[in-house]
Write a structure and sequence with these properties.
The chain has about 350 residues and is mainly alpha-helical. It contains 15 helices and no strands.
Length: about 350
């Protein structure tokens, strides 16, 4: 009877994970973020169900074990991609398409592993399993780095984790807990991983409920607080924003978000967004990038030997390609073209002064 209850509780996490994944797949808002979370729940659920069946039926086909390990290889990348896309949503920016390369790499490794069946290469698969766990851990480190860099956005006004981000943190901690459970299997039991996932899924569900409740509460507050800005109020807010941006040089922070900027001026995100969108006719990203482009222009003129990668980095851009695209969109020139044109204009000006100077 106890074994049956243990089996039921172990499989319960996988089943609940599948139903929860189907829910996230069908959500229309933040499609990429919800898709990554749904795919993560499917991968972990499959791995968990495999572990439960193998624990209670050791004679399970070797091929089924290999499929479970293949699913395990996707957990790390999907955890990182969920964190990455969630943070992009908080920053009101679109996640780029680099996520496809992460999944493509994992898929290629799985396809290569298919040609080396577990039954024939059992010794090699021991190292492959170690590699899977290292691969998983590497992606958890990347996700942790992103979370740390975005810690200002994840905190509330009291300095603690914002209630709306509890789902994000719960998913990350759940993935870490599951990895620890599988790594410590020789010291505990093979079923611990399945039990850990069951626990994690229920924590995720609870976090989602809390997050949903927080959004409803915020929506009620915004109904009364987010009123139409007058031109005077919008103008005053824009002046405050410009002052804070120049004095604190917030644009040099590549992780600057709308939430952080609103916090700096003591206003709501929606109010700041409304002022920038309606009063200036710009998006938040365009508003910030204009400050970054001005800084980049100064560097291009005053630091003639500084390469473009360093100019982009010191101007607050996350990548050189983003810098080039933003610079071209704002000035109509490439950074190199702008530097060359200004250098030519400076030389021509000097030549004109030399020609016009009276002979001594």
């Amino acid at each position: 009877m106890s074994s049956q209850l243990l089996f039921l509780f172990s499989v319960l996490g996988g089943i609940n994970g599948v139903f929860l994944a189907l829910y996230f797949f069908t959500r229309r808002t933040h499609r990429l973020t919800n898709t990554m979370l749904g795919a993560l729940l499917i991968a972990v659920g499959f791995r968990t169900v495999k572990s439960a069946f193998y624990y209670f039926n050791p004679d399970l086909a070797i091929g089924f074990l290999q499929i479970g390990l293949a699913a395990c290889l996707l957990i790390g990348p999907l955890t990182y991609l969920y964190v990455f896309s969630h943070l992009a949503d908080l920053d009101n920016s679109a996640a780029d398409s680099h996520w496809r390369w992460h999944l493509l790499l994992a898929s290629c490794i799985i396809l290569v592993a298919v040609n080396f069946p577990y039954a024939r290469y059992e010794n090699a698969w021991y190292y492959y399993v170690c590699g899977i766990h290292a691969y998983w851990f590497g992606y958890l480190l990347l996700a942790a780095k992103n979370l740390w860099q975005s810690r200002a956005v994840l905190r509330d006004t009291h300095g603690g984790p914002a209630r709306g981000n509890m789902l994000l943190l719960s998913v990350y901690c759940g993935s870490l807990l599951l990895l620890i459970a599988y790594l410590t299997t020789p010291l505990t039991s093979y079923i611990v991983g399945a039990l850990s996932f069951t626990f994690s899924v229920h924590v995720v569900i609870l976090s989602w409920i809390l997050n949903h409740g927080a959004k409803v509460e915020v929506g009620k507050k915004e109904k009364y607080r987010n009123r139409k800005l007058t031109d005077q109020d919008a103008g005053d807010l824009i002046e405050s924003l410009n002052l804070v941006m120049r004095e604190q040089q917030l644009h040099l922070n590549p992780n600057l978000s709308l939430a952080l900027l609103a916090k700096k001026v003591g206003s709501l995100q929606t109010t700041v967004s409304q002022a920038i969108n309606e009063h200036l006719g710009k998006t938040f990203n365009l508003y910030v990038n204009e400050f970054r482009i001005q800084h980049a222009q100064d560097l291009l003129l005053n630091e003639s030997r500084m390469n473009m990668e360093l100019v982009a980095e010191r101007s607050g851009f996350n990548s050189t390609s983003t810098f080039f695209a933003a610079f071209k969109k704002t000035t109509g020139q490439t950074p190199a073209g702008y530097r060359a044109a200004r250098a030519s204009a400076a030389l021509a000006s000097c030549a004109d002064r030399a020609v016009g100077a009276p002979a001594s």
